[in-house]
Amino acid sequence: LALILATQRISRPIVNLFVSRDLGGSSAATEAVAILTATYPVGHMPYGWLTEIRAVYPAFDKNNPSNKLVSTSNTVTAAHIKKFTFVCMALSLTLCFVMFWTPNVSEKILIDIIGVDFAFAELCVVPLRIFSFFPVPVTVRAHLTGWLMTLKKTFVLAPSSVLRIIVLITSLVVLPYLGVHGATLGVGSLLAGFVGESTMVAIAACYVYRKQKKKMENETAAEGEDSAMTDIPPAEEGTEVVEMREEND
């Protein structure tokens, strides 16, 4: 988890560096970095809180062995947690599309809250609209991270942070050849990094799930064999029954 947090902290400086160097340190580069600086906090508002969903599973899942506060009468199940997660994601997506796709709403937020002029606010519209798609990978990552925290299997998350940086840098290098530059390049690359990270987390969760399922199947098979063995009468008892029948004859 510390490695994941570290990669999250260095992602934005990497984006600023590549965006600035892509434009050759010109006035356009300065403008692009300024747009990124203005759009980061505004774009983060509707989805940033989704990261805390990772705390739901450890707090409420009754199957968590370390959760001593959960009583047997607790009605919270994995299905409830999944529904809650989906509702949170839907709410965040709705906020994003209302704030960033409704005409003049994002500009008004930038002018009134950030304090920029209208011309600068217009340059931030496209990057903010890209932020609208962040809730999906962020929710997937947070939900599965919480589940893995419950199982104490967070070590499988380490490759996801590495993949995020790889995808991020690859996007920052490749997208300029496709005509994407400036703040759009930065936010688009961030989105690609998030998607890559959440995909790797999903793969890790599937791996852990299959191992857990296989372990449960093996335990069930072992219990079945044990119960079958206990149903067979001991050999000595069978011999005594035969001897008693011979005496009666």
TrEMBL record:
GO MF term set: inorganic diphosphate transmembrane transporter activity; phosphate transmembrane transporter activity
Protein keywords: Membrane, Transmembrane, Transmembrane helix, Transport
InterPro entries, alphabetized: ANKH (IPR009887)
Domain of life: Eukaryota
Protein topology in the membrane: Multi-pass membrane protein
Places the protein is found: Membrane
TM region(s), chain numbering: 84-103, 109-134, 155-178, 190-209
Region (Disordered): 219-249
GO CC annotations, alphabetized: plasma membrane
Single Gene Ontology BP annotation: phosphate ion transmembrane transport
Pfam family, one: ANKH
Main location: membrane
Protein family per UniProt: Belongs to the ANKH family.
Record protein name field: Progressive ankylosis protein homolog
Source organism (scientific name): Neovison vison (American mink)
